[in-house]
Amino acid sequence: MELTAAADPGVSRFGCRVAVQEPQRESSRNGAVEPRDASAPPCAPCGMSSTYLRLRAVPPPALRNSATWLERLFEDESETVRQPVVRHREEVLDTRYLDQERIYAGASPNPAEARPRTQVVLGGRPVFRADRHKPPFLVLTAAQARQVAGFLAMADFDALWDFARDELLPRYGGVTGEPEAWHAFASAHQELRAFYARTAEYGDAVVKSLPA
Fold first, then answer.
1. Where are the domains of the chain?
2. Where are the beta strands (DSSP E) in the chain?
3. pTM for the model
4. Which of 67, 137, 185, 195 could form a disulfide with 129 if both were Cys (CB 3.0 to 4.6 A apart)?
């Protein structure tokens, strides 16, 4: 299946418009885009973060191959932990993240597309915690994050949705619930595309924290 860029990613096939998230631009030296502070994403209510999949961009020099360090990165919002990761940005997927994964990884990709397509949501090198009952962290290198950003920039969400819809719709109200389901997953797609685009722009790696 060939994936091409949609003519207008903000327009829904169901006649509504999906808000296309653009990076927030603020004044900075050399005109670079300054990311918004995503330490408390609006879609992740306080005290509920353990039910969400969290993706955080981290500058490679600051990244540590240590589960303890990664736990502190996500759990401790103190200035001591945040200081080395000044540029960090975070994206959050709700409890439907496995179905978002299905939209990307479930289609039959061309061989060249296989790797970045499967790395959007759950891909990455595992970093195991001391408590093996907890899921590992997943880490994408800066190069891998750039590949994912490239895939998302070119992907036609409608083509991805058409491939996955028969499996997904029974969980979301069937055909009558399709417009609402499409809108929810298309919005998450736009947010992921914006997140990975910012990450690639800064040359950052991505760390993912899975729900317990």
1. 50-209
2. 53-58, 89-93, 125-127, 137-140, 205-209
3. 0.75
4. 67
